[in-house]
Design goal:
isomerase; TIM Barrel; single chain; Sugar phosphate isomerase/epimerase; isomerase activity; three-stranded parallel beta sheet; globular; Xyl_isomerase-like_sf; alpha/beta
Length: about 325
């Protein structure tokens, strides 16, 4: 499918149909105004949080399990390095089962979205190989960020939607769902509006988005706009916080803080996610160099406790 294959009229019609399933959930469904005391959320550890400790794939999983997380988001390059040491995907799957933890998602950086056809083809091939590997170990999802389309603005969002649909069709083949990820520092797909447009315009029933507290703020999205997203469009939400300084436009990944330690509207976000419906995996994603210098297990436990504290506050308010 190329960019000209969808007429503007057909695209708008498709967007309208898909929007009925993914937008405006509060106007279409009855949601309780006050969250219940029982939390609908589960908790995950994104391995970026412990990346500086250089634990290696197996130890990362062991720390997450010992800290009490329900699941993890692995980094694909860490898994690949582990396999290069002589291990097999089948062994990895057994190890995951023995630890009693789920690999819920994976982080990769394939250039599936770019304009250059050669680079995009290589990116699609990379994504397919990674998704096939993830299926072997039982991982049902992967992040799909706008890798390679971050420096130059002006990406055609309809073209991006067609490319995302092609990625989703690979997901149909492998059983691994690619989630369109917001990158707040990117010149493209840095707002919730852009990501939702691409997801809706892909016209695919498995289209999902992967939001992040830091990236929503960094890219200039209004948190209130989250209420427009149906809960079925979000399986995983990256949890973190951000400081008052430096200014928003100067924030970097390394400025991310534990949930509740910054100024982000996390309670509002949790309440909005609950009211949107559907179970959610809250995944701690940090790149804080100060945390990387600390004991990995203590960092993991602290992050989990702080996520749960935010959720408890939201559930009681």
């Amino acid at each position: 499918m190329n960019t000209t294959s969808l007429s503007r009229r057909k695209a708008l019609a498709g967007i309208g149909l898909a929007a009925s399933a993914s937008l405006l959930p509060l106007s279409l469904h009855s949601r309780p105004k006050t969250p219940p005391t029982e939390s609908p959320f589960r908790y995950s550890l994104n391995m970026s949080t412990l990346r500086g400790q250089k634990l290696g794939f197996r130890k990362e999983l062991e720390v997450a399990a010992q800290a009490g997380y329900d699941g993890v988001e692995i980094w694909i390059n860490s898994l690949q390095e582990y396999l290069k040491q002589g291990h097999t995907p089948q062994e990895v799957r057994r190890m995951i089962g023995d630890l009693g933890i789920k690999v819920e998602d994976a982080i990769g950086f394939a250039t599936w979205i770019v304009d250059d056809p050669t680079t995009r083809r290589k990116g699609m091939d990379q994504a397919k190989q990674e998704m096939e590997l993830l299926a072997e170990i039982g991982c049902p999802r992967t992040a799909a960020p706008p890798m390679g389309a971050t420096e130059q603005p002006g990406l055609d969002l309809m073209a991006a939607a067609e490319r995302y649909r092609a990625l989703l069709e690979i997901g149909d083949q492998t059983g691994v769902v690619p989630q369109l990820e917001i990158w707040g520092f990117s010149k493209n797909l840095h707002t919730l509006a852009q990501v939702m447009f691409v997801a809706v315009a892909s016209q695919h029933p498995q289209a999902h988005i992967l939001p992040d507290v830091y990236h929503l703020y960094r890219g200039g999205s209004d948190i209130a706009s989250l209420r427009l997203v149906n809960g079925e469009a979000i399986d995983v939400f990256h949890m973190n916080d951000y400081p008052t300084a430096p200014p928003r436009e100067q924030l970097k990944d390394s400025h991310r803080l534990y949930p509740g330690d910054g100024t982000g509207p996390l309670v509002e976000i949790i309440k909005t996610l609950y009211r949107a419906g559907g179970p959610k995996l809250l995944s701690l994603e940090l790149f804080n160099e100060a945390y990387w210098k600390q004991d990995a297990l203590q960092v993991a436990k602290t992050g989990l406790a702080k996520m749960k504290a935010v959720v408890e506050k939201a559930m009681q308010s």
